[in-house]
Amino acid sequence: MVTFVVTGFERVSGAGRLVALAAVEIDLEGVVVVVQGVQVIRHRGRISTQAPRFRNPRTGVWMPAVILPEELGLAIAEELHQTLMRGPGGIPLSDLLATPLETRIDDFLAAD
User: Where are the domains of the chain?
Assistant: First the structure.
């Protein structure tokens, strides 16, 4: 059984497209993995969630630092979007775009 919990969530202002950063604890049948730096970004008026990323030293392309199964990535993205909608200054539901965490950043941007 795989479960997860959002252990940290911080709204960010003044950082370009970045709206928030999150930390997620994933429990894989007793083995706990903490993923820090999950990004909630705004792109062309929409909000999406991306895995932490790194720049490929050979190509210079930003790549996800963690690849999760699509179901888990979507569930985490939905939870982060719900967290973003709650509280003061919440983001309207119409602005949210569910993208699994394993979506490659360049693939997401090329789709727009």
Answer: 2-111
